[in-house]
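Hey, resending since the last one bounced:
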Amino acid sequence: MTMSPFMQVAYSEAQASFNEGGLPVGSVLVHDGEIVSTGRNRQEQTGSNLLHAENDALERAGRRERRFFRACELYTTLSPCPMCSGSVVFYEIPRIIVGDCTTFAGEVEWIRSRGVTVDLEESQECIALLQRFIREKPDLWRKIVAD
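The C-alpha cells again:
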C-alpha cells in the first residue's frame, strides 16, 4: 500500500526525528486539503515531556479558534498516546489518520469513543521505521513506553 501524500510528509518528519536521535514519530495538521503545520517527536532533542509529534504540530499551527480545528484532519505516523489523544479530543479534531497502529496501539478505541473518526493507514514504511528504532535503541524505547 502506498502512503497518502500527507502521510508521506508525516513520515518525513518521523525520519527527521530519528536522524536527530529522537523517537521517529511525525504528524501533519491539514485544513481544507492544505498543510497547516507539521510536527515531530522532540522529547529527546529538547528534554521536553510534551513535545510529541501531534502536540508539536498543534503548537506550530499557532493560536486559533476552536472552530478552525473542527475542520482539520491530523495525520500521525504512530497511534497517539493518551496525552496526544486528549489533545485531539480537546481541540475537537474530527478525523485522524494513523500510519502505524501495529507497533503501539495507543488510544484508538478511546478516541473513537469520543466521536473522532480514526482511519488506520498501516503504512509499512511507518511500521518499519519504528521497528528499526526499537531494534537500535531498545533502552530508549523502554524508557518512553514504560516511564
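The longest helix spans residues 5-19.

Sorry for the duplicate.
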